[in-house]
Amino acid sequence: MSFTPPPPPVFAGENYHIWVVKMKTYLQAHDLWSVIENDAEPL
């Protein structure tokens, strides 16, 4: 059995305030939020 993580949330032009929260949570869950905060390259 393999686990496939869910795809990142896609912004469809509506409900930006909700998408932002979902995207930040998604990036934090995959240890990528520091890339955004620090303008760094992912490892």
What would you say this structure looks like, in words?
There is one protein chain. The protein has a domain at 14-43. It contains 2 helices and no strands. It has helices at residues 16-29, 33-38. The longest helix has 14 residues, at 16-29.
Major pleated sheet: none
| β-strand number | 0
Number of helices: 2
Nearest-integer average pLDDT: 89
Helix content: 40-55%
Strand-and-helix sequence, N→C?
Answer: HH
The structure class reads mainly alpha
Cα-based radius of gyration, to the nearest Å: 12 Å
Which shape, going by the Cα principal axes?
A: flat
Break the fold down into its secondary structure elements and pairings.
Blueprint: H1 16-29, H2 33-38
In short:
Helices cover 47% and strands 0% of the residues. The chain has 43 residues and is mainly α.
Features:
43 residues, mainly alpha, 47% helix, 0% strand
